[in-house]
Amino acid sequence: MYRVVSLSCIALATAISQADDVLIVSAGSPTTDAALVTALENQGHTATIGPNYWEFDTSTDITVFDVLYIQGNGNWTQSDMPIDAQSMILNFTQDGGGIIFSEWVVWMVSARDVFQVLGAAMPVEESVTYRTTAEVTFTLNTAEPFLTDGLPTSFTMPLTSFSGTESFLRPKLDATVFYDSDWVSGDEVGAAAVGWDICGGRVVNFSTTIGTDQIQDPNFQLLFGNMVTWVTRSQTDNTCPIDFAPPCGELNFFDISQYLARFSALDPRADLTNDGEFNFFDISMLLTLYANGCN
User: Quick one: three-class SS letters along the chain?
Assistant: First the structure.
């Protein structure tokens, strides 16, 4: 207890950085990958191009990154990501990392029976319904700090086709739809950007392929940069906000150890009171949450 409080004293005067390190799982398109790097750097983040998804294995050190962006655009016809690599990424998310998926990945879960481990972590239902349209309009559904900051309530942008441009997305229970698409089927509006908390981390699905044309749109570029910030900030799962370490849904020594490491590093995810400070009140909240357990 005394050691924990001393950490809070050290943390009080330190500012929180908003920059994040992003690993981009390659689109199989050098032009798309390069546009993503430029867009993220324009928003103050750093970006590294990783392997294609089917070449992604456990030799890739993902612990040095804050966010993984996983896409299947120019390379969507290839084989599955190795299961052990998917499990490693799932553990990364449960441990506080963020994942962002583009359109083809959710389509492949159902249509091609790949990404089965990561598919369970997605905040959207499986979908094989897609369209090819030259542009799309995103309209605000749910405002969220970091994510919607500086953006208009509605904006239209061009799309790049990779044998299609957009999937019809339906949110899972407890997921949040941040933006709606202009794609309406019957009386149902397709979701454009959907996210949720999963233990210590966050996962987001976009409905679109996110090709070069969309990436270079100023509004989408800002949204994508904001999304990177959102998936790594103030993360809770509502019922168990200190469940940082696997196994998900169980509190133990490893969760406390992870929290103390984040607290010492002034990680925003350790700001349990969401007041921008690291102090006794966060530690008090930690003890209360731990005593209550996961519901």
Answer: CHHHHHHHHHHCCCCCCCCCEEEEEECCCHHHHHHHHHHHHHCCCEEEEEEEHHHCCCCCCHHHCCEEEECCCCCCCCCCCCHHHHHHHHHHHHCCCEEEECHHHHHHHHHCCCCHHHHCCCCECCCCCEECCCEEEEEECCCCCCCCCCCCCEEEEECCCCCCCEECECECCCCEEEEEEEEEECCEEEEEEEEEEECCEEEEEECECCCHHHHCCHHHHHHHHHHHHHCCCCCCCCCCCCCCCCCCCCCCHHHHHHHHHHHHCCCHHHCCCCCCCCCHHHHHHHHHHHHHCCC
Q: Is residue 68 part of a domain?
A: yes
Q: What is the pTM of this model?
A: 0.79
**Whether 130 and 276 share a structural domain:** no
Residue 120 CA to residue 190 CA, distance in Å, equals: 20
- pLDDT tens for each residue of 243-295: 776 666 778 887 888 788 778 878 777 888 888 889 999 999 999 888 887 66
Residues of the domain holding 257: 2-13+246-292
Kindly report, residue by residue over 94-105, the tens digit of the pLDDT.
778 899 999 999
Q: In Å, what is the CA distance from 44 to each residue of 19, 69, 172, 202, 211?
A: 6, 16, 31, 20, 20
Residues 205 and 11: their CA atoms lie apart, in Å, by 34
Provide the pLDDT for residue 86. 92
For residue 222, what is the domain's CATH number?
Answer: 3.40.50.880
User: Which positions ≥6 away from 15 have C-beta within 8 Å?
Assistant: none
